[in-house]
Amino acid sequence: MPRPARRTLYLHLGVHRTATTNIQATLFRNWPALLQRGYLYPLGVERHIGLINTIFAGDRTASDAARDINDRADAQPSPVHSLILSDEDISMRRDLSPLRGLSDVFDVKVVMALRRQDLWLESWWAQNVKGQWDHRLCHIRWEDFLRERAQFHWIDYKAYIDHIETVFGTGCVIPYVFERDQMPGGPVATFCRQVGIDDISDFKTAGGKNISLTPEMSEFVRHLPYINASMKYRLALIEVAEVVDRQIRIEGGTSLMIPYALRQKIMAGYDAGNTLLAQRFFGEKTLFKDPLPGPDVPVTMPHLPEDPERVMQRLVTPFVQALIDRFDDKI
Questions:
Q1: Residue 13 has pLDDT above 90, yes or no
Q2: What class is the 8-120+153-194 domain?
Q3: DSSP secondary structure of 169-230
Q4: Fewer CB within a 10 Å sphere, N or C end of the chain?
Q5: How far apart are CA 43 and CA 150, in angstroms?
Q6: Structural domain boundaries of the chain?
Q7: Is 29 helix (H, G, I), strand (E, B) or coil?
């Protein structure tokens, strides 16, 4: 097909814990429907972490990668005006300048979901101790994780957007707020609107949900050596933990883990930047509409029961039983 003068590349960099897995699975599954609309989700993968990692490793330049996927767009049976790349790990990188070469070929727009920082921290700790891919964080105590939160530089959204604009130019970022009431139709539909797709009623639904464990189950799994297992076995062990977690969820309880005063302190550190983003991008006084939990709202610190017998009854025995159910016929 004839090549447009310049295509748009939507670079979806997360951040983590904003339904990125579900968004990627949906875009991948609906590749033909996207193409009918003039969008290419390239390379036949759900997540473009491989391509992005080769650029940051120096194995290829961003310009070369851009030319390659632009050629792929040319080869499609119908016209392509836009491409979408998605990898939430991009957001963890302090310096995005290795990606600057993408703009040699494309008009780059960076799509970024903004989740309230206190809730993001709770979810990110739970995800790290469940998924266990990072030796620095997979066994870290919740209290230590919070003390070391400055390492998560990318949730200073104002500072990070400023950096992105030094790479791709002022006005390149398309942010949206990850709150239920600010995402009509849900996270996938909201993401699609950011890239110009207003109707996804014909899209096939996809899986890809990646929920956090409850605080108690997260603390239990934190002590387990999941990280030593192969990825296939680790994913199976995560499924085992989720079986026990569903039993715990029946009791109700809360997923909030940050005490009131500390939550106020954490959010105060981001207030100035959040306010500037609210004014600039949304014409609002505040970025996040949901109020912070009040002092009377229950909080569950991720601790194990003090009684060893209680630990066995609530966690160890159900976990071993779930292991038996999962693997008994496979050995």
A1: yes
A2: alpha beta
A3: -TT-EEEEE--GGGSTT-HHHHHHHHTT----TTPPP-----PPPPHHHHHHHHTS-GGGS-
A4: C
A5: 35
A6: 8-120+153-194, 215-254+301-330
A7: helix
